[in-house]
Design brief:
By secondary structure, this protein is mainly α. The protein has one domain (3-132): Orthogonal Bundle (N-utilizing Substance Protein B Homolog, Chain A), CATH 1.10.940. The chain has seven helices and no strands. It has helices at residues 3-15, 25-34, 42-57, 59-69, 80-95, 101-115, 120-132. α1 packs across α5 (80-95), α5 (80-95) packs antiparallel against α6 and α5 runs parallel beside α7. The longest helix is centred in the middle third of the chain and has 16 residues, at 42-57. The radius of gyration is 14 Å and the shape is globular.
Length: 133
C-alpha cells in the first residue's frame, strides 16, 4: 500500500473513535482488520495500527492545539469526518517528522474531498493553514 492509502486506512480506523467507547477500541481495531473485503498485509496492518496508536496517545494534545488555533470553532462543533481528518493531519504536522507540513495538509484536503461534505476541503484547509506558520 502506498502512503496515501495507508493514511486513508488510519483515517478510517481513527474515525471509529468517534462512535466507540475507548474501552471498545481494541475490539474495533480487530474488527477493522478482520471484517474487510480487501485484506491488508501484515506489514501494512502494523503500520496502520502503530500510527493509530500514536495518534490516540496524543489525542488530548492534538485537540488542545486545534482548539487554540480555531476561532469560532472547536472540536466539539466540527463534523466528525472533518475532525478526524484534521486530527490525523495535526498529528503529522506536530509529531511526525517524516511527513512535511505541506504534504499533511494536501493529503488531508484530499481525504476531505473524498469523505467530507462540499465545504469540508476548504474548512480543513483553513484550519490546517493555522499550523503551517
Amino acid at each position: 500500500m502506498n502512503r496515501s492509502a495507508l493514511r486513508e486506512q488510519v483515517f478510517l480506523l481513527l474515525f471509529r473513535m468517534e462512535f466507540s467507547d475507548p474501552a471498545q477500541m481494541p475490539r474495533q481495531e480487530e474488527l477493522f482488520f478482520t471484517e474487510r473485503e480487501d485484506p491488508v498485509s501484515g506489514a501494512d496492518e502494523e503500520t496502520i495500527r502503530a500510527k493509530y496508536d500514536r495518534i490516540a496517545e496524543h489525542i488530548t494534545e492534538i485537540d488542545d492545539s486545534i482548539n487554540e488555533r480555531t476561532v469560532g470553532w472547536d472540536t466539539q462543533r466540527m463534523s466528525k469526518v472533518d475532525l478526524t481528518i484534521i486530527r490525523l493531519a495535526v498529528y503529522e504536522i506536530l509529531f511526525d517528522d517524516a511527513v512535511p507540513t505541506g504534504v499533511a495538509i494536501n493529503e488531508a484536503v484530499e481525504l476531505a474531498k473524498r469523505y467530507g461534505q462540499d465545504e469540508s476541503p476548504s474548512f480543513v484547509n483553513g484550519v490546517l493553514a493555522r499550523f503551517a506558520g
